[in-house]
Amino acid sequence: MREDAAGAGFEASDLSPVRINWEIKAVLPIVFVLLNGLLLFTIATVSWQNPERHTILVVAGAGAVAICAALVLVLTYLIQRPMIELQEKIARVGDGRFDVAVKFARRNDEIGDLGRNFNRMVLQLKASRQEIEHLHRTQMSRAEHLATLGELATGLAHEIRNPLAGISGVVEIIARDLPANSPAHAVVKEVRHEIAQINDILTDLLQTARPHAPDIRLSDLNTTVEHTVMLARQQAFSKPIEIIFKNNPSLPEVEHDSGQIHEVLLNLLLNSIQAINGPGRITVEVARRDDFALVSVTDTGCGIAPEHLPYIFRPFYTTKGQGTGLGLSLARRIVEEHQGQIDVVSAVGKETRFTVQLPLRRAAAATVVA
After folding, report:
1. 365: which DSSP letter?
2. CATH number for the 217-369 domain, one of 3.40.50.150, 3.90.1170.30, 3.30.565.10, 2.60.120.10?
3. Confidence of residue 4 (pLDDT cuts 50, 70, 90)
4. Considering the chain, what percentage of its residues have pLDDT values greater than 90?
5. What distance, in Å, lies between the first and last C-alpha atoms of the chain?
6. pTM value?
C-alpha cells in the first residue's frame, strides 16, 4: 500500500499542464460553430420532405460555415502574420543584428503596442551594444598604452638605478675622506637624502609598472592592521602624535594578502603623520558592514582641499613638497585587486578619513588557508 501511494504521488508530481497554442484556443469556438452548421446541414438533408424547414436549415448552415471561414481569415491576418514576423525578427536580434523593426508597429491596437515596444527595445539594445563596444575599445587602447608605459618605466628605472648606485658609492668615498670639521658634510648629507628620494621614486615606479598578483590567504585582518600600527608608532615616536588602534574581535578571518594590505595601511598612516603639524591624533579602527571588513584611518591633520580630492589617487599627483605621488595610486590598485574599494572624506583644517573596504570572501577566487 505504501509503495502504491508513493507511486501514485510520483505520477501526480510528474503531471504538467498541457500547452495549447493560442491558434487552437481561438479556433475551438469556430469549430464549434462549424460543427453546428454541419449538423444543421445534415438535419436539412434528412428533412428534405419539408421544403421550408429545409431552406432555413441550409441557410443557417451556410451562414455558419461562412462566418467560420471569415473568422479564420481575420485571425490569420490580424494575429498569425504579426506573430510569425515577430518570431523572425527576434531570431535576427538573437544573431546580433539590431537593424530590424516589425511592420505591424503602425497598427493602432494591442498588437501595434507590442510592435512599438519591440522596436523600442531593439533600439535600446543597439545603443547599449554600441556603448559597450566603445568602452571596450577605450579600455583596450588604455591597456595597451599602460603596457607600453610600463615597459618604458621599467627600462628607464633600471637605466637610472645603475648610475645612481655608482653616484652613491662615490659620495660615500668622498664623505669618508672629508675632515671631521669640514662644512661639506652637510652637503654630503643632503646628497644622500636626494639619492634615497630618487631610489624611492624608482621603487614605486617599478611597482606600478610591474604589479604582482596578491597572495590571497584567509587570515586575521586585526593582526595585519595591528602590526602596521606598531610600525607607524615607531615612525611617529619623536612627534606629539597619538595613534589609537580599535580592533574588532568579532570580525571573522578575511581573505587578503597581509603584506599588500600592510603596505596600503602604512602608506595611509605615513600620510596622516605628515599631515599633522604639532600635536594630533590618528585613529585606526576595524569594523564590519554586511559581508565587508572596513579599516578606517582618521587623522586630525590639515585636511585635503576639495579641489584636490578627485585627483589624489592619480599617479604622480601630490600636494606635498616631498613624496613620489605614487603611494595612493598603488594603494587603490592593491585594494581593487582584492575586489574592494578605498574612499576618502576630508574637511580642511579638521580631519581626513580614509576607509579601506575589503570583502570577507572574494568572489570566484581560490583561497589558501593560513
Report:
1. -
2. 3.30.565.10
3. very low
4. 24
5. 56
6. 0.51
